Amino acid sequence: CMHLADRFPDGKLAPPLGSVERGVYYQWCLFSTATIEANLIQYLTHTRRLPEEQRNAQLAAEAKANLDAALKGLNGELDEQQYLLGQSFSMVDVIVGSAVIGGTAMGAIAGFANLDGYCERLKQRPAFLKAYAD
After folding, report:
1. Beta-carbon neighbour count of residue 49 at 10 Å?
2. Fewest CB atoms within 10 Å of the CB: 46, 60, 82, 84?
């Protein structure tokens, strides 16, 4: 995703190289993969994906606690802005949004009002509606 945003700069999905906003952009892209997705996958693996006899309740609980802590910070970030880099949609919203929308759909994410609104904004975007038309 990051490569595509750079490859097609006319789409304005990434802040300019060298800008302060570019650092924040990188931060959220990596945060999503390393923190949200990693804990989401661990939680779902030990609550749904593995056969019951192979699940580890302690790993599931730790992953859920880490996920909720990360989501609490993300939820707070969206207190006064529409998207993660402010009022403009960017590729970081594709990356973070896909993890949060997926986790919500699987029932692993709930109880974060700002994230709920964020997901709804993302799901109303024309590209999202086109991708999920059928």
Report:
1. 11
2. 82
Burial (CB count <10 Å: 0-12, 13-18, 19+), residue 77: middle
Residue 96 vs residues 37, 71, 80, 81, 93: alpha-carbon distances, Å? 9, 11, 17, 15, 5
The pTM score is 0.92
d(CA 36, CA 129): 24
37 φψ region: left (φ > 0), alpha (ψ -120 to 50), beta (else):
alpha
Helix (H, G, I), strand (E, B) or coil at 83: strand
